[in-house]
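If you are new to this repository, start here. Below is one unmodified record pulled from the training split, so you can see the exact layout before writing a loader.
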Amino acid sequence: MRPSGEARAADTARASGGARFDLPEVDAFTRPYWDAAAEGRLLIRHCAGCDRAHHYPREFCPHCWSEDVRWRPASGHATLYTWSVVHRNDLPPFGERVPYVAAVVDLAEGPRMMTEVVECEDDALRIGMGLEVTFRAGVPVFRPRSGAVPPPSSSVPSPSSASKTTS
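And here is the target side for that same chain:
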């Protein structure tokens, strides 16, 4: 089996001495996940024993400990649970991406997933906003669903527009 694009990129980066911290360590167990992501599909693990989904990928169900788990396509829909805007990261290639939004999302199927929110201004982020999966170089990231980004609130001044008082 040929390695996926991400696996090849990671191997190339390691061979050239240019360490990258955004590429996964692909192994035989997670290869279906990363191969699907390279094709623009999000997979999660689903347990036949308790009928619950989970993420990150494991060979057993974290809810009932059953080993009867399989890959299943996810809808790609999620809601924003929490986020943090990262302004400094010295690990390659993150330094070139700052600021970026590190986030935790609730997938429509139930599990929570760590990810990045893209294509959204920081002041438009809202807990519970609807998101959809997209892929950057075979890695799932999320962007606002159409119509899910409310306009920034005009009732709360931004730090740059707050009036200053002098004494």
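Two things worth knowing about this chain: The longest strand covers residues 77-86. The longest helix spans residues 5-15.
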